[in-house]
Design a protein that fits this description.
The complex is a heterodimer of chains A (83) and B (153). Chain A is 27% helix and 23% strand. Chain A contains three helices and five strands. Chain A is of the alpha+beta class. The chains are: A alpha+beta (83), B alpha+beta (153).
Chain lengths: 83, 153
């Protein structure tokens, strides 16, 4: 699946998007975040406080306990500050 | 059935011209409310805001909130424009324009839309200081989430 990173999540990881292939045991957003956290230094900094991160599956807001299902795109970002 | 017009774009917009589009050629509208969010300079410290957005989801989320507003209030026109990219102090960031027969619906819908745009539309503001220094990302305010939550209480 495609992972997108925005704002300080993007800055800490160092890239805006990438293709990821989590292992079969990773079935929820929370599990995916734990897996990403272990991918390296930048990821560790980005996912150090999971509660500070909002997530979207296929461009719809999703809670951390949501199943990944067959989503093609997942996004990680800080709470929004538009308007 | 009123259709919302939603635009997410980098270019500056003209508030007067945009809001006039809602009432052009209409004789049935009794109230037009416009809200414009502007970039402020924080007492001269801020050179610009850099607004990052999630292309595709930004339009979709604003559209979703607009559909909810149209279901809650009998609006005769609805326009939402949100910019991204570099925005200088004094420039507009966001415009919400609502038209209805009577003022209450237009005021309420505009207020509802702004409360949800702030908390659910995927935009993030970075502050750039005079001299070019990065002053970090604007933090989301808890009170903004609480204000939005009241509409669904």
């Amino acid at each position: 699946m495609k992972a997108l990173y925005f704002a300080w999540v993007r800055e800490r990881i160092g890239i805006a998007e990438e293709e990821i292939a989590p292992p079969p045991g990773v079935t929820t957003i929370a599990e995916l975040m734990t897996w990403l956290h272990g991918k390296g230094e930048g990821y560790e900094a980005a996912f150090a406080n999971k509660k500070a991160i909002r997530t979207a599956l296929d461009r719809t807001h999703a809670r951390h306990d949501a199943a990944l299902g067959d989503a093609r795109e997942i996004a990680f970002f800080p709470p929004m500050t538009g308007g | 059935m009123t259709q919302a017009v939603v635009r997410v774009e980098a270019a500056p917009f003209d508030v007067a011209r945009e809001s006039a589009r809602l009432t052009e050629g209409r004789t049935d509208i009794g109230a037009l409310v416009t809200f414009t969010g502007l970039c402020r300079d924080e007492d001269g410290a801020l050179a610009a805001l850099e607004i990052e957005h999630y292309p595709g989801m930004a339009e979709a989320e604003i559209g979703r909130v607009a559909t909810e507003a149209l279901a809650r209030w009998p609006l005769q026109g609805l326009l939402i424009v949100h910019r991204f990219g570099r925005i200088a102090p004094g420039e507009p960031i966001v415009l919400v324009a609502t038209a209805s027969q009577h003022r209450h619906e237009a005021f309420a819908a505009a207020s509802f839309l702004m409360d949800f745009l702030k908390t659910e539309a995927p935009f993030w503001k970075k502050q750039r200081l005079a001299g070019g220094a990065d002053a970090g990302w604007v933090a989301a305010k808890d009170e903004d989430a609480a204000t939005a939550g009241k509409w669904r209480a």
